[in-house]
């Protein structure tokens, strides 16, 4: 089996960094290159800059040179809302995006730049992590900082599908910083898991489980040309059977938005 060279963007993010660490554990299958904008953060998280390229996804030239020779791309960049100021007592916190960091620039233009660079370089597969909720234009996440984040994310997903590159779009429920590999994962479509979760379970999933799904999507051909929502049963759910068979999981998913 030949080793796949995989570029992971958003590599210093909370899920992206987990993907880099996991892919490094499969060194006989993958050679991983991390792409991140802050050298200090890379060193804090990984100890050294080795295996990383420092760059910004709004810079097409750096993306182009970085992606050259890669077999696959994992997109884990996202606009990040920041709290304006600690809320006064009884008030809800207000959020905003930094200049240059609006969802239109990061989740649309920035993701489009990555998909275009991948197309030009002949990359064979893209795994994109997005978010559930995109079928509802009035979803509360869209009003954060007037960013319409889910609308821009969805537009990028459509662009990826139309690019002709093999895609896997993983739309996660609320992300948890909890251990992975301890839950049953549930896949769905069209936000049905969000509006009608089975047995009213929380619509969330550990970041570690999402990172493992990304790895499995790169390993399992059945994951190609699929787009799906994913949540997890709670860890202590008596009906839960820990997901280990990813071929079966991916075979329950379909292509198209
Ligand atoms: P995260 O920690 O917010 O990471 C986002 C990454 O994007 C960061 O590494 C950030 O870089 C990078 N980034 C932003 N702008 C960039 C630019 N211009 N150039 C280069 N890199 C840039 O991500 P997460 O919370 O793990 O979420 C992963 C994905 O799941 C996102 O798409 C998110 O929307 C989605 N999701 C989140 C939730 C949730 O509950 N939070 C729920 C469902 C889905 P820095 O490290 O330098 O900041």
Structural commentary:
With 257 residues, this protein is of the alpha/beta class. It has one domain: 3-Layer(aba) Sandwich (Rossmann fold), CATH 3.40.50. Helices cover 34% and strands 21% of the residues. The chain contains nine helices and twelve strands. It has an eight-stranded mixed sheet with strand order 3-2-1-4-7-8-12-10, with helices on both faces. Strands 5-6 form a two-stranded antiparallel ribbon. Helix 1 packs across helix 8 and helix 4 runs parallel beside helix 6. The mean pLDDT is 97. The structure holds NADP nicotinamide-adenine-dinucleotide phosphate. The site of NADP nicotinamide-adenine-dinucleotide phosphate has 27 residues, from helix 4, strand 7 and strand 9.
> Could you say how many structural domains there are in total?
1
N-C termini distance: 32 Å
CATH topology: Rossmann fold
Largest sheet: 8 strands, mixed
**CATH class bucket:** Alpha Beta
What structural category arises from helix and sheet content? alpha/beta
Rg, alpha carbons: 18 Å
Element order: H for helix, E for strand: EHEHEHEEEHEHHEEEHEHEH
CATH superfamily: NAD(P)-binding Rossmann-like Domain
Low-pLDDT sequence parts: none
Individual helix count: 9
Number of strands: 12
Mean pLDDT over the full residue set:
97
Which percent range fits the helix content? Answer: 25-40%
The CATH architecture classification is 3-Layer(aba) Sandwich
How do the strands line up in the largest sheet? Answer: 3-2-1-4-7-8-12-10
Strand percent estimate: 15-25%
Shape: globular
Bound molecules: NADP nicotinamide-adenine-dinucleotide phosphate
